[in-house]
Specification:
Layout (H helix, E strand, L loop, with lengths): L1 H23 L7 H12 L1 H12 L3 H25 L8 H14 L3
Helix pairs in contact: 1-4, 2-5, 3-4
């Protein structure tokens, strides 16, 4: 029971931070095209390299993107670990919209 509570709290906290980054980026998670564009940036090594350089140069929006991408990786790992324990963990609507876009881009849809 404690593990289930912890995974739920982790998912809530991470998805809250993902929402904050999306707001900072001016992204509307109800807009699939915007979510897809961010997912494409996250999954493109070339684009990701450019974003890292921009963030290193002090670009706050680029840093927000890097934060979003890192938090998304943490969320995916957290969900994977909870599933391995047989525990259902899920995020909020913002996370679900971004995760859906990530899977679509990854699957080439």
């Amino acid at each position: 029971m404690i593990d289930a509570l912890r995974y739920g709290q982790d998912a809530d906290a991470i998805s809250h931070e993902i929402t904050r980054r999306l707001i900072a980026l001016g992204a509307d998670w109800a807009d699939p095209a915007q979510m897809r564009a961010l997912a494409e940036e996250m999954l493109s090594p070339t684009t990701l390299h450019k974003i890292r350089e921009q963030a290193g140069g002090g670009d706050h929006l680029a840093q927000a993107k890097l934060d979003l991408f890192g938090l998304s990786g943490i969320m995916l790992k957290s969900m994977e670990h909870s599933a391995e324990q047989g525990i259902l963990a899920h995020g909020n609507d913002a996370w679900k919209a971004f995760a859906k876009a990530l899977w679509q881009v990854k699957d080439g849809r």
